[in-house]
Design brief:
mainly alpha, two-stranded antiparallel ribbon, about 5% strand, globular
């Protein structure tokens, strides 16, 4: 990590610009996001459901993020139709600055955005997880799509989150067995059907 003096000297010689609003990075920056874009992301409050993570849109404070308690009961939706996973968490609402950042990250090759996006997930989700995390496993990208983009955005995020948590990233624990359509073109039910049976445990699980 660069010292404050080194960062200031580099910014003076080569002013860093936010990839979303193109303004010079300044106070409260989360490189490569400027402070304004970073704070414009609408964080989700503490989950009301410990299964699906449903929560009202509410900016979280440091005290909120560090509180250990989570609701003891699932929401009515999860009771009526239990999801096929143990529990899920979301850090923020997919709109505005977050939508722009994710699109720039995935489709415009802005790999450095993995740093603030990974930090967002780690800072706002980990405190409410039910169990201890042993490893972070990214979803493998289709070979053709990864070749086209030059990287797997899920793996970059996984490595950032794993680094923040002090646990290993295990990209070989999950493998893709067939290609799928782009999820962004599909409705929720179609997305679930699209990825059903597309992945399996890799040969390195547990190692």
């Amino acid at each position: 990590m660069l010292s404050g003096f080194t960062q200031a000297a580099l910014d003076l010689l080569f002013p860093a610009l936010c990839p979303l609003c193109q303004t010079t990075l300044g106070a409260d920056r989360r490189d490569p996001l400027c402070g304004s874009c970073w704070h414009a992301i609408t964080r989700l409050g503490r989950p009301r459901c410990h299964v699906c993570g449903a929560a009202p849109p509410l900016a979280m404070t440091v005290d909120d993020a560090s509180a250990p308690a989570v609701p003891a009961r699932p929401c009515p939706t999860c009771v009526a139709d239990p999801p096929p996973y143990d529990y899920a968490r979301s850090a923020a609402i997919f709109e505005g600055a977050l939508r722009e950042a994710l699109h720039a990250f995935k489709f415009s090759g802005k790999r450095a955005l993995a740093r603030p996006l990974g930090d967002l997930a780690a800072e706002h989700c980990v405190a409410t997880l039910v169990e201890k995390i042993e490893a972070v496993v990214p979803v493998p990208l289709a070979r053709e799509r990864e070749h086209e983009r030059g990287f797997n955005q899920a793996e970059l995020l996984a490595r950032r989150v794993a680094r923040r948590l002090g646990v290993p990233a295990r990209p070989r624990w999950l493998v893709r067995v067939r290609a799928t359509r782009p999820q962004s073109d599909l409705a929720a039910a179609e997305r679930r059907a699209n990825v059903r049976g597309a992945f399996r445990a890799g040969p390195d699980v547990g190692s």
